[in-house]
Amino acid sequence: MEPALIFDLVLLLILIGLAWLLLASTDLFRAVVLFIAFGLLLALAWVRLGAPDVALAEAAIGAGITGALLLVGLGRLGSTERCRFSRAPLTFLQRLSAPVLVGVMIPSISLILLLEVHQLAGTTPGRQGLINAFLDVSGSGHGVTAVLLNFRAWDTLLEKGVLLLALITIWSLDQARPLFHQEDISPQLMGLARLLLPLVIVVAGFVLWQGDQAPGGAFQSGALLSAGILLAILVGYSLPQRWQGLSLRLLLAIGFGVFLLIAAATLLYSGYPLQYPEHLAGSLILLIELVATASIAALLAAAVVGGHPPDDLSTPAAKAPSTSGRR
Amino acid sequence: MLLSDLITTLLLICSLPFFLAGTLGLLRFPDLYCRLHALTKADNLGLGLVVLALMIQADSWQVVIRLLLTWLLVLVAGATVAHLIARKAQQDGHQPWRR
Amino acid sequence: MIELYISLALILLLTIAIGLVRVLRGPTATDRMLAAQLFGTTAVAILLLLGQAGGNTAIWDVALIFALLAAVAAVTFVRRKDIDTTTET
Predict the structure, then answer these.
(1) A180 and A115 housed in the same domain
(2) Looking at the structure, do residues A209 and A305 belong to the same domain, yes or no?
(3) How confident is the model at residue A123 (pLDDT cuts 50, 70, 90)?
(4) What pLDDT is stored for residue A5 in this prediction?
(5) ipTM of model
(6) Range of the domain at A325
(7) Angle, nearest 10°, between helix axes C58-68 and C29-54?
């Protein structure tokens, strides 16, 4: 057997086993670490599937944000003792659900997927031909970017909306509380942050710019930046209080807002939302990607902080770490 | 077989023991501080040898710099994290293992 | 050469699988975090090897991002307002 095939099979087995272990784990911290490992391996899987765009996003999200998000969330739950599930005696329906799930649903879903994949096998190029035919009028030199920001821009618009909605929900729950020790920062950690932050910004810019020709783009870049903001918060930087009001909210909403405005303008101009005029397509995509990057970075970092900035900004009691680091 | 291929093969094979030792140490060493020690071998030499092996295969200096940067970043992150975790463990009152 | 790269990547993948035992066993949260740190390094090595095998430099961008963010999870772990970390399993 070819080594590549064995690699894929082993990766698949580990992923499934890992998914099972982390779902079945009663210790939540263990589940979080297993999830971090799952993210790493998932990025490998995307690479093996020939989807470096998704792998880049998974790397930035999985290595940077999800781990931190879950660790912070776990910290908010309180002592680890309380984070363990207690196993209550099972009811009759619960007892029934396991055999139904394992015996009936998994085989039938597998069968449906198998049939679908079997049908797909004949049409491997998929939409590649169609995308390539229209690539030169799309305003982007990279097929995935053309799909995300032109052919199927509607989906991406809604995705930005979902992110914003998620943060609104988080903010409606609680006020941000201090998450990190403010004192006693190791000088080595400061050094690491000072070394990494400029590099993160440069690489995020590179990833964004590269999205025009190669795997990359707003989401990957924004996720990377948000990890940078998180690192800054972790070493004690915070957003000045005068920027925590309207400026922060504008930053969070600008990605979705500008995208929506462009959708409205194109609706008036051409009769269809997000059907760009051909000569403007490139510039519009660049504009959307730039504002989206800023918003995604701020939204993801704010989600980790998990709470709205203090209502009364004038009181110095608001020692909460800022909702997003330096800008 | 080209000389460069031969060197790459040798370096890659040399890198393997360090990853294996890192994993073995992670599993077998008796306490946190010892495991921390095992871990950094993979960062430093394991990945270092892989990067060196691939640098020999590189066809432009940009690729060499890119590989080197990746390794240096992992190295810096690994060293800092090892320090931070050891410090935290000490503050938490972990006692080093004694025979 | 390509077989060599992939085979080595496969062995590294297996070391991750074996390392999972430490995550499962613990005993402390810090031990589990250590294992995740090792997985990060190993994943970077696997990505570099896969990139070389496939001749696709986009994969190296993924490795670069992993390397850049290698410390983020562990730093969050160390810095967060802490709860008891000595959970026995």
Answers:
(1) no
(2) yes
(3) low
(4) 87
(5) 0.90
(6) 131-327
(7) 160
Q: Which of A241, A235, A203, A247 is nearest to A221 (CA)?
A: A203
What residues in C contact A199, CB-CB < 8 Å? 68
> Residue C72's domain spans which residues?
2-79
Whether C44 is covered by a domain: the verdict is: yes
pTM for the model: 0.85
CA of A69 to nearest chain B CA: how many angstroms apart?
18
Establish how many alpha carbons lie within 13 A of residue B29's alpha carbon, considering only the half-sphere containing its beta carbon: 21
Neighbours of chain C (3+ CB pairs under 8 A): A, B
In terms of domains, do A299 and A190 share one?
yes
Question: What are A9-66's pLDDT values in tens digits?
Answer: 999 999 999 998 888 888 888 899 999 999 999 999 999 988 888 999 999 888 888 9
Who among C19, C44, C78 is closest to B26 (CB)? C19
The answer to whether the Cβ–Cβ distance between A192 and B73 falls below 8 Å is no
Q: Identify the residue among A22, A36, A213, A234 best suited for mutation to test binding to C, counting C beta carbons within 10 A and taking the highest.
A: A36
Domain count, chain A: 3
Phi, psi of A51 (to 5 degrees): -120, 70
Work out the minimum CA distance from B99 to partner chain A, whole angstroms.
29
The residue among B76, B85, B90, B92 with the most chain A CBs within 10 A of its CB, best to mutate, is B76
Same domain, yes or no: A120 and A187: no
Residue C58 touches partner A, C-beta closer than 8 Å: yes
Same structural domain for residues A269 and A152? yes
Which has more confidence, A125 or A187? Answer: A187
Structural domain count, chain B: 1
Instruction: Output the average pLDDT for chain A.
Output: 82
Residue C18 located in a structural domain = yes
Q: From residue B84, give the alpha-carbon distance in Å to each of A185, A186, A290, B87, C50.
A: 10, 8, 35, 5, 31
Q: What is the pLDDT of residue A318?
A: 39
> How far is the C-alpha of B21 from the C-alpha of B42, rounded, in Å?
8
Chain A residue with CA closest to C57: the answer is A52
